[in-house]
Amino acid sequence: MSETISGVKRRGSGRPPARELEAHKEAILDAATATFLEHGYSKASTAEIARRAGASKQTIYSLYPSKAELFAALMQRRSARLIDPLASQVLRDDAPVEEVLRRFAFQVVRLLLTEVSQRLHRIIISEAKSFPELVGAFWANGPGWGRETLKVYLDAQVAGGVLEVGNTRYAANQFIGSLADVIVMHSMLMLPTPLEGEKAIGDWVEMGVSAFLRAYRKMGD
């Protein structure tokens, strides 16, 4: 016989099955994402998240003791879905460096242009002063992780004699910044996207990759 405790079915006094628990977490994170995007961080309520998830507030607090931890969890999930595949599929490729950087740049730009990404950026900026813990969760599971992943790739290219870079962390920030800054600024100011259509994205990426390689590609003796 099963009983429901805090919205999660349990068998006797044991823990819920792993698959059931994961499904419950997914529902809560889906509901939290929708609620944060709709209301912002400060105005998002646990009661609203619980209602959307079909769970109880007690269940949410048992999994995520604070709203900050819930936000960090949804950012970690977003990173696992979007950034980890980018690292494994693109930056671990042994293709020529210009091809790898081009694919990486396309993925970064397309991700930044999504409505969800732009709304998350606005939430972070508007709530940063009151809730500085959000900035850490956002950076560690988004921009910071992407930059660190690119740095590791650049380190390998330097070791292989392909690139000549004095500080690969600076170079990773420089490359992503050259792609992202104008997009993020337009998003923050609620301006129309500066890159409309695939041709504009392609031209932007090519300029960024070409400039980066002119600066850092190791020239032959």
Fold and architecture overview:
By secondary structure, the chain is mainly α. It has two domains: 49 residues, Arc Repressor Mutant, subunit A (Orthogonal Bundle); 149 residues, Tetracycline Repressor, domain 2 (Orthogonal Bundle). The chain has ten helices and two strands, in the order E-E-H-H-H-H-H-H-H-H-H-H. A two-stranded antiparallel sheet has the order 1-2. Strand 1 and strand 2 form a beta hairpin. Helix 4 runs parallel beside helix 7 and helix 9 packs antiparallel against helix 10. The protein starts with a strand and ends in a 5-residue tail after the last helix. The N terminus is likely disordered.
Cα distance, first to last residue? Answer: 76 Å
Uncertain segments of ≥5 residues (pLDDT<50)? Answer: 1-13
CA-based gyration radius: 21 Å
**Structural domain count:** 2
Name of the CATH homologous superfamily of the largest domain: Tetracycline Repressor, domain 2
Major β-sheet profile: 2 strands, antiparallel
Q: What structural class do the secondary elements suggest? A: mainly alpha
Short description, anyone?
This protein is mostly helical.
Name the descriptors.
mainly alpha; HTH_TetR; 4% strand; Tetracycline Repressor, domain 2; Arc Repressor Mutant, subunit A; 221 residues; DNA-binding transcription factor activity; two-stranded antiparallel ribbon; 10 helices
